[in-house]
Amino acid sequence: MTNWAEKFRMAGVYLFLGVMAFVSIFPFAWMVISSTNASVDVTKGKFTFGSAFLQNLEKLNKTFDVAQVFWNSGKIAIIGGFFTLVISSMAGYGFEVFSSKARERVYNGLLLTLMVPFAALMIPLFILMAKFDLLDTHLAVILPALASAYIIFYFRQSTKAFPPELREAARLDGLKEWQIFLFVYVPVMRSTYAAAFIIVFMAAWNNFLWPLIVLQSPELKTITLVLSSLGSAYFPDFGVIMLAAMLATLPTLVVFFAMQRQFVQGMLGSVK
Amino acid sequence: MAPKPTTSYRRFYDVNGWLFVSIALGLIGVFMAFPIVHSLWMSLHAGQGTVVEFVGVGNIVRLASDPVFLKALQNTCIFLVIQVPIMLLLALVMASCLNMPNLRFRGLLRTAVFLPCVTSLVAYSVVFKSMFSYDGLVNHALAWLGLIAEPIPWLNDPFWSKVVIIIAITWRWTGYNMIFYLAAMQNIDKSIYEAARIDGISAYRRFVSITIPNLKPVILFTTVTSTIGTLQLFDEPMNITTVGTVFSDNTLTLSMYIYNLSFKFVPNFGYAATVSYVIVLLVAALAAIQFYAARERN
Questions:
Q1: Taking phi first (over 0 means left), then psi (-120 to 50 degrees means alpha), and beta for anything else, what does residue A186 get?
Q2: Which domains does chain A have, with CATH numbers?
């Protein structure tokens, strides 16, 4: 292959990736810029920063309590995420370390539930929550996500890298099984937990359909619900919507940039 | 591993094994297994609200002549058949570009194309809704470039509204799939490529004969997960093409129809459960076909 043909090909690659990168980033830029503009300017396609940011924030705060909504979403994502990790990591550890024929069968059944779409669950889950008298509570949002077959799978795969010698040594030292798990396994697997937490946190923070079904009271609503209701107004205020979209994206963006490696590692946990 | 287990050792082993997995199993039983069975039972019943009667296969019969269901099924299938192949191909090409050994700004480009994955579906949906509105940014840009004389009614037109949904999902998920491909490509032994290069095999042939066969399990994985995702499409059509609280027929999906049947109209949980089982069966059938196809070619 001649040298300039190779150069030509690389130019094509850079052009392709450049366009893709531009298309990927553009909506973010548009969102940030539009959040500082009034609705009329947003629809006009004004692509420079404006001075309406504070007005937008004021309007947004008038429609709903920004701090309260953030608190609701954060509470669900952090508390739900914490317990999901506790429960799923115990299960993943149990399935891997205490593997037996019976549990192997149960585990395979568990993986099968990954194929069941949420649409098939939402009506019976709704009826179940009504029976438990949990409708319109944050607990109803958190509960169904607690035992995640996906995260159990992730922890089981990661546990394969946990050295059995550590467990044997701890056992010889007279530690009980739960002590081995808590004082040996958990500290050793810190980065596994970090990766899983990001995945679980983002899923809960971004969840929409299930909170939409169970949450009614305005003071319980999460950021995605509020954003959706702003967006579906007959006369949408685009400046305010863009500001709300930015606020909804900000936490996940921060988490992503702070822990990019763990995030990708967590995602890939399912194919290794 | 361990020496041949004695009875007491086996009991200890078993008790601890079940203890560790019990909480998760209990929760999955209550919030997953029970609802699956319950909805199957519900799908044999029909009625309004809490007044239900046994109808057997009556709901299935009703499906066949329900124009709204058929519309939703058609829309969902259009999204599936057009969007998934476009997205996976794009992800594959992007990954192989990013995998080139002499590429500069690799980290920067990778982060950029991966960024959409961290936004919430609702947040990017409302951003896309504003960009594609009748007097929005996209129409302004196209007019400025001289490509259109009249603004395109992106969100109301039966054809263009589907195009917007397809563009939106592709924007959100291509980078996600790309990461799986990229990770798998980095696990392929570099010396195979070197040998092929020395033998004078073209880049295109290297891609088809080395990269693709090595990526088969990952391609299967992304195809199955993308299929499951698209069959459940809800957030995007709900937040992009819906005006007020009226779902647009042009982009109505099966999940939206289930939502309507359960929580918007007078609730008919039985019929909604039947529609939800259509999704379950589609997921199962398509996944089975994809697994079968992947095995055949091996």
A1: alpha
A2: 53-268 (1.10.3720.10)
